[in-house]
Write a structure and sequence with these properties.
It contains 15 helices and no strands. It is mostly helical. The protein folds into two domains: 2-141, no CATH class; 156-342, no CATH class.
């Protein structure tokens, strides 16, 4: 039992937490730079952002290796493993990196510093193991993640109220899991933009519901964990990523109830009451409040003529955007979490982030 607890902490708490930081320091920060690059005379920031986005796999794998206390050569070699796993895993890239990097690092450590030609043997073994798994296992992991995409595509064709609940909850949960919600939304083209294929209205509804679900997770966790993490935690989760809570969710899954229920409420409110539609870049549908890219993407879709927004932006739309993306997730998550605390399901320290 002690061994299982040790392994559980090592892989699903330490490694997963480090991976979230690696993802934030590359893909998510890069996406923020790309958005800032839309500002006139700041186009160079978009180029910087694309460089950062391209390094998502290496950053995640290196972070995992570091958290596992790997030797330097194993950490350096894991960058190549992360690139391969993320590339071959497609929408499930981050999930592929998580499993493949752990296996490659652990096997690399078995040979590290065991020979007189360590500088050759260690990176060779680490990259060989990770490379083979990336070629043959990562696509299978990507296919599994693709099943989620297929499910969301089906849901988007159902009644708006029902599909909004499903999409908001599923994409919100995916945002917090070590899976790329942004990549899934981009792959499904969850936007009604003129560039989108298929039913633009249905995709616009799905995109708006996805934005609502992602915002609910990020703002929700930021608010309900404030007593443990203060302002630093509020900012790192609210405009960073709720994935930082994954190690705590593994330990105490009940902390996920409040933000998830909040997303089930804000999703249908977004599309059925406030008439929100996503006509911005599809990737923004899966970003939530990370760098404010979810709301920004929706606003850009409203006012960019090339996106083909079909109607006028009303006061109700603006009110809905603020309520759905910020105020309602905070209020609903707080109230639901307080009920859970009264029931004894959630206690102090359950959502404390690692320093």
């Amino acid at each position: 039992m002690k061994l299982l607890k040790k392994l559980f902490k090592r892989y699903f708490i330490d490694a997963m937490g480090a991976m979230a930081q690696g993802l934030f320091a590359s893909l998510l920060i890069g996406t923020i730079f790309v958005a800032l690059g839309m500002i006139p005379k700041l186009e160079f920031l978009a180029s910087i952002g694309k460089f950062a986005q391209a390094m998502a796999g290496p950053a995640m794998a290196s972070a995992i290796a570091y958290s596992l206390k790997a030797h330097p050569l194993v950490i350096f070699a894991s960058a190549a493993v992360g690139y391969a796993a993320n590339d071959r895993g497609e929408a499930g890239g981050p999930l592929a990196v998580f499993f493949i990097a752990i296996i490659a690092v652990e096997i690399g450590m078995l040979v590290s510093k065991k020979t007189k030609v360590d500088i050759i043997v260690t990176p060779f073994v680490t990259i060989l193991v990770g490379g083979v798994l990336s070629l043959y296992a990562a696509p299978l992991i990507g296919t599994l993640a693709g099943k989620i995409s297929t499910f969301i595509g089906w849901a988007s064709l159902q009644a708006p109220f029902v599909s909004a609940i499903i999409i908001s909850v599923v994409i919100g949960v995916v945002l917090t899991l070590p899976i790329s919600s942004a990549a899934i939304c981009a792959g499904l083209v969850l936007t009604g933009s003129a560039a989108a294929a298929g039913s633009s209205e249905g995709l616009a509804i799905a995109g708006a519901a996805a934005v609502a679900g992602c915002c609910a997770q990020m703002v929700g966790f930021a608010v309900i964990s404030f007593r443990e993490n203060k302002w630093g935690g509020l900012l790192s989760q609210g405009i960073g990523t709720s994935m930082l809570q994954m190690p705590n969710i593994v330990r105490h899954p009940q902390i996920w109830i409040a933000p998830t229920l909040a997303s089930a409420i804000t999703g249908p409110l977004a599309v059925c009451v406030f008439g929100l539609r996503m006509y911005g870049a599809a990737i923004n549908s899966g970003m939530g409040t990370c760098g404010m890219l979810g709301p920004i993407g929706m606003i850009l879709g409203w006012f960019s003529p090339e996106n083909g927004y079909p109607g006028e932006v009303t006061v109700l739309n603006w009110i809905g955007l603020v309520l759905v993306c910020f105020l309602l997730p905070a209020l609903l998550s707080f109230l639901i979490n307080e009920v859970l605390r009264k029931l004894g399901w959630v206690k102090d320290g359950y959502m404390k982030l690692e320093d």
